Amino acid sequence: MPKIAFTRKAKELLGNIITDHPDLTLVLDDTTCCTVSNVFARRGAPPWAARRIEGYIPVYVHPSLEKSLKSHGVIVDVLDFVDDSLSLETNYGKRFVMITSTLIQR
Question: CA-CA distance, 28 to 18, in Å (whole number)?
């Protein structure tokens, strides 16, 4: 499983969202439904089988991404951008993005 890191902006936004949604989780999904990201902020665990990564907040990885991300670290950052996503951060005028990196120590 990949190691997850969060930028300062991402941690600040997560803190704001957690205030409104204490059961916040992030899902790294393989969907292409949204313009710029495969990171989805939601309440609770996803309905499909996913592996949970412990850390700053619960992060679930869709099984189809496990193989491609296993040798990478993932950095979650924030854009001042809103698309058609149902992800919770769009209510705050932001969008989480996932950056893969081999520079993160596993």
Answer: 18
15-53 pLDDT per residue, tens: 999 999 999 998 887 765 555 557 889 998 888 777 777
The DSSP-derived string for 49-106 is --EEE-SSS-EEE-HHHHHHHTTSEEEEEEES---S---GGGGGT-EEEEEEES-S--
Tell me yes or no: is domain 4-101 CATH 2.60.300.
yes
Domain ranges of the chain: 4-101
- Which residues, including other chains, have CB under 8 Å from residue 19's CB and lie 6 or more apart? none
**Which pair of tokens denotes residue 96?**
């989480």
- List 50's β-bridge partners, or say none: none
Report yes or no on whether pTM surpasses 0.85: no
Nearest of 78, 81, 106 to residue 15 by alpha carbon: 78
Cβ atoms < 10 Å from Cβ of 33 = 11
